[in-house]
Structures are given as C-alpha cells and as structure tokens.
Amino acid sequence: MKNVAILGSTGSIGRNTLKVIKNLKDFNVSALFGGNNISLLTEQAEEFKVEYVGSFFEKNKEELKKKLKNNFKILIGHEEADFIYENSEIDVIVIATAGISSYKALIKGLENGKRICTANKETLVAFSPILKKKLKSLPGELVPIDSEHSAIYQILSKAKRNNIEKIIITASGGPFYNRNDLSSITPKEALNHPTWEMGKKVTIDSATLMNKGLEIIEASVFFDLGCEDIEVIIHPESIIHGMVEFKDGSIISQMSIPDMKIPIQFALTNPDRENFPAKRLNLKDISSLNFKEIDQKRFPLIPLCYKALREGGTLPAVLVGADEVAVDRFLKGEISFKNITDTIVKVTKSHKINKNPGEKEIMEAINWAREEARRLM
Questions:
Q1: Rounded to 5 degrees, what are φ and ψ at 331?
Q2: 135: closest CA among 143, 150, 122, 126?
Q3: Assigned CATH for 2-144
Q4: Higher pLDDT residue, 344 or 201?
C-alpha cells in the first residue's frame, strides 16, 4: 500500500487525482492540503478518511478546526506542511498547486526519497537553474503529470540517451490559434478551451501559448535537454501528446484521449499500468491528425521562452512573475488579452539577468517582475 499526500486537492488536478485513486486498490490518501475552499477540502477528508488535513493559509485555521472537529490531525501554513514532506509514512506527494509556493515541497520531498508527481509549471520554470543542478543528486523521484511531459517520460523510459535526436511537444493551439484579431478577446472567451478542462490561470496561459512556452523550460528540467533538443508543434486534436525523434529518423509517439486522469494515473503507478475505467481512444473514430508550425510572430511568448531557456539565470523566474500578474489583471477585466503578452515581453526586456542565482535571488527576481508588470499596466 502506497500512502499519498495531495497538495492542492481542491483544484482541477487534485480532484482528478482523487478520482484516479478511487480506482486504485494499492493507494491510500493519507494527507490533503488545500487553499480557501474549506467546504470541499473537508468533504474530501471525510470521504477518503485521511489522517492529515491542512490549509496553506492561516486565516482558514478556525474554520477547518470547527468543521473537522477532532477527527483529523490539522496542519496550517507552509511550515506545518513540512511534516508531510518529511513523514516517512508518506510515499508519494502529488503537487497539484499553481504558483511558486511548492518549491519547498518538491525539494524536501525529493531529499526524503519520495516520488514527487507534479503538475506545477511555475516552480519548475522559475527555479530551473537550481533544479538542473540538484535533481541528479537527490534520492527521490520526479515524475511529470502534464500530459505532454508524461508522454515524453513514457517514451524515454527505455530509450538510450545517445539515441535521441529531439523531443516534440504538441500544443492544441488554444481557442485563438486561427483567430486573426486578438485585441477584443474577453476573459469568458479565453476560458473556453476547445480540448481541456483546466484551472483559470493555465487556461489563459494556453490561450496565449505561454503554457506551451513554460513547458519548453519544464522539459529541459525533467529531461536535461537544451533548446536545440526541444520542438513544439500545433496539434489541434490533442490526441498525440508527445513524440521523440531518434537519430535514425524514427519517431515514437504517445496517444490517448485528452483526459488528465490518464497521465495522473501513470505518474502514480509507473512503471506498472492499471486498468483505466473510462473512455478509450478509438482509432476508427479519428478521421485525421493535423500538425502545424507555430506562428511565432502572432504568439511571441514561444520564442521568448526559448530565449529564457538559452539565457537561464533569473530570466525564467521573471517570465513566471510577470505572467502571474498579467493573467490576473486580464481575468479581472483590467487589461486586454493582447496586453498580457505585451507586458511579459516588456518586463523581460528590462530585466538584468543574474546568471548564477540562488533561491533568494530567484525569489527577488519574481517579486521584481511582479512589481514591474504592475507598474507597466
């Protein structure tokens, strides 16, 4: 029996993880951490009979205690969450939170030999200079949840490194890839993704293709690759989630219906595979699979993310900080859709890169980018 802790259990990835575990006989949910949705968090805790329940925010302490009474061990704040990362009874930590706050969980979990299944882009991107140096020496195991990186992970699991030519990450293109005028897009339109059901932040990032740009940098962390080894291509059907081209010209792909529960389940069970009790991909139903080159002039965040990967240092962290603020302002109706991209580009241009940052310098770069983005808007 493997004991699982889920950070961000009330979000999209967290909820899907619980659905997956319901159908896995050898997994037990030991701990749940959430944000402000205390009602859902308590429902989850009671349904799965977990031992530990926590909220990252101090303001939720009394409500959580009142609703759960003395039936659970309650942990409040990031400091008390350390107990989960260091607890020898926890085997797997699923990071389903957004933002950069999960860095400590990732590092401490890996230091304590746990399997870390993560869907958090911002942490991997912002702290990429440090993670690339640290990951090989940590005893834990880092496993991707994102469908694209899961696809590459599955393909590369039995491949010899010197046989790989490049990896190919697919992008749906979001809702606006074929739309000429991007100036009048509303938050409601941007949140209407044609393929995936995701949280608000990641859905807007998908519409600007920032999501795919961040995945380029993520891939460099997961698989220790450089810019020249990573290609992104538009694939509107979202059937092929990732491909690997080998030096003999062969390309191997991973295909499935677009359902996040599939990569979540693989992250938990690999190298084994369990039955997936849901809709399957029927090849007879697929009339065609289409692929297009990304128009980098219309979606300049893709080349910007490639630049951030090449330059390294604090530039990836600045991307994360500026994007966070710009997307939030757009969702509040305070700036236009096009202003998201314009703001991020301007912030990165004015940043003086620290080529060898530590954790402190990365956090300073993120905070600087947030403030600079607010100033520009």
A1: -65, -30
A2: 143
A3: 3.40.50.720
A4: 344
